[in-house]
Amino acid sequence: MLLAIGALIAIYALLAALGFPEDWADTANSHIEEHTLEYRHPSLWMVIPFALLLLIIAVFPLIPGLSHWWEDNRNKFLVGAVLAASILPYYLFVVDFKIEGHWPGHHYAYPSMHGPNTELTVEMLANALLADYIPFITLLFSLYTISGGIRIEGDLRAHPLTNTAFLAVGGLLASFIGTTGAAMLLIRALLDTNRERRYVTHTVVFFIFIVCNCGGCLLPIGDPPLFLGYLHGVPFLWTLNLWKEWVFVNGALLGIYYLWDRLYFYPKETPSDIRRDEAAVQPLRIRGLWPNGLLLLGVVLSVGMLDPSMDFLGTGWHPWMLLREMVQLGLVAISLLLSSQAIRQANRFNYVAIGEVAALFFGIFITMQPALQILKAKGDQLGLSQPWHFFWATGSLSSVLDNAPTYLVFFQTAQALSHGEGSGPAGIDHLLLVAVSLGAVFMGANTYIGNGPNFMVKTIAERSGVSMPSFFGYILYSSCILLPLFVLVTWIFLL
């Protein structure tokens, strides 16, 4: 693993050392500057590979003949890669309109005057992989691996109040070390505490609701969409204005969980299981904070300080492309070198969970490009005008698309609607920005693919013997619990 990380760092270092000229975008498109092609969107048919991938993720685990085959991450990657490859001919030979590029800087790519649209297709892949996938998976991998060297061990009595306290602490930590960091730090301790109990599935589902999603809206480092807002002019501490919604949603979820566990699931536990749980008690203690606690802080700081689009501490220097990812992988290497292997073994640490996320989201990030481009082109034609419109539009699409670019599309739509004269930051009406922010963060909990940590927690729980709901089974949970709660959020805060 260290060799693989070292190779990635070397590649990143080479790319950074080569650098990119400031006029890169202009140079790339200089041959077609005279063209004024309008910004249009792909055919709606091009959403089919993305929809098919989502359907496969939902259905394959339920089919007896395919479920075992689907467990192998290599097969997940293969399916995603085949569906991703299926959209390439469209961009190579059919597209006759410009697309927006985001790496290494903002620019437009144009169709070729002669032959295949090689440059345009490369730009689409660069958007998917270089601008989105690599930063996404590197951050998740870093938080996952470093937190794997920290062990919160002990075995508390798995009373409903104990589990509720776990969820509350995780929901608070999510805003300060990110939803991924908080989830990876606490999920194993929660599972260890509940290992004597038979009914644990609902506890993990609420963990995903709160720790992996809804707890992360108080600071930009809590969830990637909010960090994008920070990069586009939203003050770092503005998200603290969301504290009322944060308290309401997370408080309601904690209350629902406690009552459900206390009145329904805990009484169903067998007397023998309860006796074993009461007898097997060990106080909590934390191991591995050195050096991993400091390294986790380093990852969080790298996200906030090493974005290439930002002026580093007012020095006028912009970090190199991929320097942030190089630093994060370097911190992972330090963790693997200096951490206690005994702690990782006690955590049953392996790369299966992050491997599943990497395999699935490779295909997702590429196949969702047509959907994002359609949304970008048509976002201002959706008839959105009220805060609750933005909340549900942003949230619904964030449930199945990556919530970071979805947030940015509706952020820009709200900015255009406010005509740069809104009462909130970045020239956006305050309530519209609240709606977009809450929709992107809260509704990532609606599906397993709504946010990266969701799948990782699911896999870790299953490896620990917890029977987790299927893709559709999880949606049934979220539909019955989250959607009514989001209706109340709309009524109380956004109307």
Structure characteristics:
495 residues; two-stranded antiparallel sheet; two-stranded antiparallel ribbon; globular; mainly alpha; 4 strands
What features would you describe in this structure?
- The protein is mainly alpha-helical and 495 residues long.
- The chain has one domain (2-229, 244-362).
- The chain is 64% helix and 3% strand.
- It is built from 22 helices and four strands.
- The protein has helices at residues 2-18, 24-28, 48-59, 64-70, 73-85, 88-93, 118-147, 160-193, 201-210, 224-231, 243-268, 271-279, 289-305, 323-338, 341-346, 352-367, 369-378, 387-398, 403-418, 430-442, 452-463, 471-494, and strands at residues 99-101, 107-109, 151-155, 282-287.
- The strands form two sheets. The chain has a two-stranded antiparallel sheet. A two-stranded antiparallel sheet has the order 3-4.
- A hairpin with a 5-residue loop joins β1 and β2.
- It is globular.
- Residues 1-36 have low confidence and may be disordered.
Mean pLDDT: 87
Helix content: 55-70%
Shape: globular
Order of helices and strands: HHHHHHEEHEHHHHHEHHHHHHHHHH
Class from helix and strand fractions: mainly alpha
Radius of gyration: 23 Å
First-residue to last-residue Cα separation:
51 Å
Number of domains: 1
Q: Which stretches are low in confidence, meaning pLDDT under 50 for 5 or more residues running?
A: 1-36
Query: How large a portion of the residues is in β-strands, by DSSP E?
Result: under 5%
Task: Record the strand order, biggest sheet.
Answer: 1-2
